[in-house]
Amino acid sequence: MPVTQSVGAGPSGDGGPRGSAERVGSSAPCPERGKLPVGRRSTKISPSLPELRCRRLPPCCRDRPGSHRLRQPQVPLHDRRIPGTRANIDHIAVSASGVYVIDAKNYTGTVRVDWEGGLLRPRRHKLTVGRRDATRLVVGVQRQVQLVRDVLAGDPRLPDDVAVTGLLAFFDSDWPLFPPDRIEDVRLEGPRSTSKLIRLGGPYTPQGVAMFAGRLRAHFPPA
Fold this sequence. Notes:
With 223 residues, the protein is α+β, with helices and mostly antiparallel strands. The protein is 20% helix and 23% strand.
């Protein structure tokens, strides 16, 4: 049976940190692991992409009462409104490996990361999808990531260093032979690689994932 450490404030008067990341020990192999999508990129929408296109979770990730074999809990939050604005966050996925802020696009064309500038001008990276300049999307995801970090940091029961990753997911795009995996600190993914990334194992237990998701669900209401 795995040994876990619960998230919460340290003992009264111990002077410790507000909280600590939950850890999960080893457990039996997941029977569905061999059935997960394989591959770095895909140009078609995968029907088995539960965290973005469907509310269902694979059997290995469903929380059963009394079960201690849950390795990769996942909580998807879809189309969440940013308070005080008319903007929204497409998807927030909370899993054992952290929190993922996902901006999903159906752009067509090949995803490329180039750079311009050099000796006399500052170097600037540029994201293009086909003929479309998509660089502005990077700034938008970075802002959303910071909002999510601030919300999690505002809860004294949670760790100070919850892993929050920004992600641009291109469902209908093509990818070059050597695909770019990020621009600045924002990951670039297709449908299959997005699913694979979120399903990675990590340090957070089901209880920790539920606390992260509860905090985000309360602060970012449905749009």
